[in-house]
């Protein structure tokens, strides 16, 4: 295990001045920092830019809580502090809030993020362009004191206390408290439910607030970040970060909820994790209402005390009012046979909608504690929104990806009392406990030799003590509406849709491409038969893997967002139980492939696929606390189970898309945290099993960081931090890494003892030519990040050495030996590296090399050959549990085929025959 503590290493790093500060400063300051650090300062003479069309990712929503989205801009087009105007398709000016999220090295704006309120008119399309923003009729305002932060949207006022158990003190509307005491809740049990223990002891925890920070203060959007831990007695654990977004003129509150597991998986068995609010109840029991969203837009609408379906009829007007959620007429006007017997009608105070799996939910209710639960109804996939209140106001509460992230629950209790409780359970107490223990006992793999031998059969890299979930996280998105009255079923259904799939505005692929972001890709082009053939195949493999998520039920709290690695054709299942062949965990850049497919197609289903994967792989597959914070875990049966902890999995190159396309602050946190992940090389020896005799840890100026797989992941974090105008050490390390690797005799192919200096990111190695090239060296984002970095840094030596690597990987042994002094050996993944050949061909304007690249691509070495059948076969029972579509695909091959095809089409598409 690790002999040096993370704390001692990071304390030393702080003393050396290499830990980054929190991002901040004005846009102008950030742009100046980027420019001055670059060494290639350019005069900024903006060329301007016209209006950019925007459309909704899916269809125009019926309602909107508020949304944020990102738009890129070409280098030199706009100043770094450009303001923007937004107009609807009919020319109506829409209030918009703008902030920069990235700059080009010359200080010009690269990415802008924008916020639109749910109170704004909804149009099918919009235009955003440089100009003065329309002000909202009433701006959101933020006031801060020592005791609390108060946000007023003009419709609701929300108070965030700076200490205590409540993360939200109260939500008011028109002076009426709609909800109060918003608190995080969790519970544990002493033994796992799966072991059927004879005795189980439970403990309940509540949030305790540690800090409250205002990140945005309007005029359209305010963001309040609340951090803390869950607490019972003296124990504090399960740290959380909450971001509440509120919008001008809106009654909605969006919440991005992140928690980190920092317990002992052998003793801490979580059996509940949620958010709750107390909701004051007003009016008679028959004027109090419940709403629960089902599937397909369906709604269960019930009154706490129903007056429909009785033996005696209170009257049509009474019944109609209750169904509509309105206050009922004076009971004196009813049929008195009902009025005189109201006290005999049971009042239902407790409701639950529980989604324990992806294929079924159930709704139950009861009159109160001590009474039995009565089944109300059920269905397949609930939208994930509930409501409790009366005609004078109430709270709607729900969760994005509700059924996908099962086991979930919406719970209402005490609706017959003066105050009800509304809970969103991200882990339902009805599901039993989370069991995060490793799935086997080690099988006697006590030595490195035994572990390496086991790797040969199960592809699992096991090591005692490494299969820990300590430090993994999960992020969930929730929405709350403080409503003035009980909503109709129609309006509630619209709210449920907006919460389940929050609407997003997007620029078209043509604009994203014209802005020159994210390297080598181009929008879909079916102008020739040859291009169409590849485009059809790209669509086919994307649809296949996306469809497998549903056919194989790759859902659940810890699993949703990932896909499986390899297929077992004998059992007609993915190898979910075979070591390293199970969950993919970003292996060979699956995330990158899906994001690039979205960029060029604008396809909504692909975006949601990529979004879910980014939320998963950036949280669950990565450590956020402890010695391995900043590292991810290699593919396996459990997401944290493999002993290979690597920066190639925590890879910032896989997260950047989500951040820039949405402005999501949680994604920004992850990216920022990764700029110090190079320091994990002092805490964990990645080569401990193959070279166990070496001294560890190494000196900080001679760390064995690889110049390809490792450095490519680190470079993605530094590039993003540089673009965002963050800590200048990121730019320093990126540039020093590029130039020092290029200065090695064989650049990225250099072998021998190469070491890395943690202080400034410089590599040092042999002065004579040696060769060491691995097949995996560039398939974890290095090719993609280099495509961007080479242009941004604009160093001839870097460009030349990188082109040499790209040109030589798939070349002949003779060519390799002539350039580098030795053959590179029998390398794998030649189809993958066809995009490296294509990049060199485009840069060198070499048609012969372009032809070679297409030959490499079509041959399909370690991928999909041109002769492959890209169709699928339907397999039905009894050969399989459920009917499935089976194809000859793997996640590795699909991701690398997709990336190679996309980049070859963009770079040398005109050479395709």
What would you say this structure looks like, in words?
The protein is an alpha+beta fold and 913 residues long. It has 4 domains: 6-130, no CATH class; 141-279, no CATH class; 285-329 and 345-473, no CATH class; 540-911, Alpha/alpha barrel (Glycosyltransferase), CATH 1.50.10. Helices cover 26% and strands 25% of the residues. The protein contains 20 helices and 36 strands. The model is unreliable at 1-43 (pLDDT under 50). Residues 52-130 form the PcRGLX/YetA-like N-terminal RIFT barrel domain. Pfam families: PcRGLX_1st, PcRGLX_2nd, PcRGLX_3rd. InterPro entries: PcRGLX/YetA-like (IPR045793), PcRGLX/YetA_2nd (IPR048330), PcRGLX/YetA_3rd (IPR048331), PcRGLX_1st (IPR048329), TAT_signal (IPR006311). This is Tat pathway signal sequence domain protein.
Record keyword descriptors for this entry.
single chain; PcRGLX_1st; 20-stranded antiparallel β-sheet; 36 strands; alpha+beta; 5-stranded antiparallel β-sheet; disordered N terminus; 913 residues; PcRGLX/YetA-like; Tat pathway signal sequence domain protein; 4 domains
Would you report the number of β strands? 36
By CATH, the architecture of the largest domain is named Alpha/alpha barrel
Q: What count of domains describes the coordinates?
A: 4
- Main beta-sheet annotation: 20 strands, antiparallel
Q: What is the 3D form? A: globular
User: What is the CATH domain class of the largest domain?
Assistant: Mainly Alpha
Q: Total helix count?
A: 20
How large a portion of the residues is in β-strands, by DSSP E?
25-35%
Low-confidence stretches: 1-43
CATH topology of the largest domain: Glycosyltransferase
Chain-averaged pLDDT: 94
What is the percent of helical residues?
A: 25-40%
Tell me the span between the first and last alpha carbons: 54 Å
Category from helices, strands and their pairing: alpha+beta
Radius of gyration computed on alpha carbons: 29 Å
